[in-house]
Specification:
CATH topology: Transcription Regulator spoIIAA
Strand order of the largest sheet: 1-2-4-6-7
Number of helices: 4
Radius of gyration: 12 Å
Shape: globular
CATH superfamily: STAS domain
Order of helices and strands: EEEHEEHEHEH
Number of strands: 7
CATH class: Alpha Beta
Structural class: alpha/beta
Length: 112
């Protein structure tokens, strides 16, 4: 499974098990974010520890999750960004829009 979910109370942690978040799997990720949000979960944590590359379609999926959460008065947090992924986020200036944490514990506590 590319993007398994784990529940921590009302917070859903979605784990990226892909090395490259790109056009081959971004649509699947968008669908997962949408299904999770539509089922009443508006606090999502996205774990990117295993992802070493992210292109614009991957960033687009992440932005979809952020918008879905905000539109339902929730929050979206990412953590575990590898240096190359963080660089892409910074180039796109999404670090000013997205909430980024270092650890899972920090991400979870920021939503509690």
């Amino acid at each position: 499974m590319n993007f398994p979910s784990e529940y921590h109370g009302k917070i859903v942690v979605i784990v990226s098990n892909v090395e490259k978040l790109d056009t081959t799997n971004a649509a699947e990720l968008k669908t997962i974010f949408t299904v999770v949000n539509k089922s009443g979960n508006n606090k999502i944590v996205f774990n990117l520890e295993k992802t070493k590359y992210c292109d614009s379609s991957g960033l687009s999926a992440i932005l979809v999750a952020n918008r879905l959460c905000k539109d339902t008065n929730g929050a979206f947090v990412m953590y575990g960004l590898q240096p190359t992924v963080m660089k892409m986020v910074e180039i796109a200036q999404l670090n000013k829009v997205l909430q980024i944490c270092t650890t899972k514990e920090e991400a979870l506590s920021s939503l509690e």
